[in-house]
Amino acid sequence: MEALIFAAGEGRRLRPLTDTTPKALIDVAGRTALERVVDAVVAAGAHHIVVNAHHLADRVEEAALALARPGVRISVSREDIEFNRPLETGGGLAHARPLLEAEEPFFLHNADILTDLDLAGVYRAHVEGAARDGRLATLVVTGRQTSRPLLVDETGVFGRRNRAEGWEVVARHPGDGTREVGFSGIHVLSPDILPWFDAVSTYSIIEIYMRVVGDGDVIGCFDAGDSVWHDIGNPERLERARTALGGPGAGAGA
After folding, report:
1. Cα dist. 186→16, 56, 80, 170, 239 in Å?
2. Model-level pTM?
3. Which residues, at least 6 apart from 150, have a Cβ–Cβ distance to it below 8 Å?
């Protein structure tokens, strides 16, 4: 199993903290967010981890490589060398693609998402789902309220909505059990989806998912249920995570 951890973002909502510390290296109750995510995907079975980097990339690379251990290899996809801004999730995967063996399904995991979700169970669900319906990806979703929900039915994702900007995309005709869900930033992809990521430029992976669904393929869902969930993307959520995971943090760094 492999995993790509997205750690290239600037963390603008966490400024001024992220002016000098990459968001992935912020301390969360004694351990960096990146370390926590690496440990989680390794516990799920990952043997090779790719970490993408742009903002303060030298520090991200140094910290990521230091997390290697026997049986676990870590590579770094340095977007900053060629591009003046992070490539987002779609472009980030395209840029990191040459570093992935991609012989089996692999994880994508945002570095700022911390959870006790059974990731090995998510992986099994994807493999079983792919055998059943040929899905190219499985997205972990939650019932949280969001202004940018995914639209799903019993088959999987069929569209997306942006309430703030007043638009929606319906990529295929929906079936039974339609609902809105929040995307968690954790997904499992089958290697067969990689030809969709030929363009190394700035774009969201959700845009590609809409095209995949419109082309007749399945993007499945995995309900996170009552799993503990922390998104450390703003100061309030960061402090809640620090408190829940061991007490208020004293600062940032590896």
Report:
1. 27, 23, 23, 22, 22
2. 0.92
3. 139, 141, 157, 159, 160, 180, 181, 182, 183, 206, 221
